[in-house]
């Protein structure tokens, strides 16, 4: 079906001049590339009814007015149960944009095995605009993971940093995945204490890059690949090839809805085969313990 966008002319990104209709057109067009990264994952929406300069809110649960054809899943939460929307097709994705969803955040697990993630995320969060340090950190994480015989992928966040993502085979639960990620991050921080930290509180980071592994937990989310961010210029969380980290023009907001399709016309999505690299943490955890 063709989803009708209400108030399509409403400006959502004033600086760039992009409207709600432009946003919907982007998601409709990117859907074939984006949907594999959304499929069967409970969604958390960041909604901006009047654009990025207006009131905004986070929505996890399905509202009463959602049409029946929007897929949903009910999962456990700390004090009961909650029903999340799924975006398994382009119509669902665009309909959620019509509800003023700009950014899509997804679980690291799929709903059929919610306690067993198929993604591990290192969120590289700089203290300032030192993107060169972010790139350095991403390479350091990749090198440490490669020494443990793990493949990793990298993505701009569309905000300030990079995500390094490890595809998993779902043999480990969240506790095991988080423990592994924490130990890797701590060893990196110990090796370079002037550059990296695992301190949760900003006051304790001392201007260092934060190796954030807190997303690796049940019901936590990460920004979805190809999601727009609610930032000036409509930047996009964009999967990269590792060699692109050497591009002097690269930054966390390098790609946006005005140039992303030119990029994809020139090269295939670097994450197109990410699920073919799903791997177990068991041997890597053993190697890490012995190292």
From TrEMBL:
Name the Pfam families on file: LigD_Prim-Pol
Q: Which organism is it from?
A: Salinisphaera orenii MK-B5
Q: What is this protein called?
A: ATP-dependent DNA ligase
Which positions fall inside the DNA ligase D polymerase domain?
Answer: 20-271
Q: Which Gene Ontology molecular-function terms are recorded? A: ligase activity
Please spell out the taxonomic lineage of the organism that makes this protein: Bacteria, Pseudomonadati, Pseudomonadota, Gammaproteobacteria, Salinisphaerales
Query: What InterPro entries does the database record attribute to this sequence?
Result: LigD_pol_dom, NHEJ_LigD
* This protein's UniProt keywords: Ligase
């Amino acid at each position: 079906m063709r989803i009708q966008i209400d108030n399509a002319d409403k400006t959502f990104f004033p600086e760039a001049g992009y409207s709600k209709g432009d946003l919907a057109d982007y998601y409709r067009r990117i859907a074939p590339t984006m949907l594999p990264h959304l499929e069967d994952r409970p969604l958390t929406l960041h909604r901006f009814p009047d654009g990025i300069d207006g009131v905004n809110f986070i929505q996890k649960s399905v509202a009463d007015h959602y049409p029946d054809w929007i897929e949903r899943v009910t999962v456990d939460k700390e004090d009961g149960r909650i029903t999340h929307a799924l975006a398994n097709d382009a119509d669902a994705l665009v309909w959620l944009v019509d509800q003023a969803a700009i950014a899509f955040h997804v679980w690291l697990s799929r709903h059929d095995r919610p306690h067993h993630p198929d993604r591990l995320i290192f969120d590289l969060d700089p203290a300032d605009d030192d993107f060169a340090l972010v790139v350095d950190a991403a390479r350091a994480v990749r090198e440490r993971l490669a020494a443990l015989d793990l493949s990793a992928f990298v993505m701009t966040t569309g905000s300030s940093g990079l995500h390094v993502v490890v595809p998993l085979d779902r043999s480990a639960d969240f506790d095991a995945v988080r423990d592994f990620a924490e130990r890797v991050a701590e060893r990196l921080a110990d090796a370079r204490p002037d550059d990296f930290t695992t301190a949760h509180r900003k006051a304790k980071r001392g201007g260092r890059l934060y190796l954030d592994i807190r997303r690796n937990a049940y019901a936590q989310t990460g920004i979805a690949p190809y999601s727009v961010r609610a930032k000036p210029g409509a930047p996009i969380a964009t999967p990269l090839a590792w060699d692109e980290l050497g591009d002097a023009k690269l930054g966390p907001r390098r790609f946006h809805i005005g140039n992303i399709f030119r990029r994809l016309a020139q090269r295939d999505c670097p994450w197109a085969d990410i699920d073919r690299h799903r791997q177990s943490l068991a041997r890597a955890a053993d190697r890490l313990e012995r190292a």
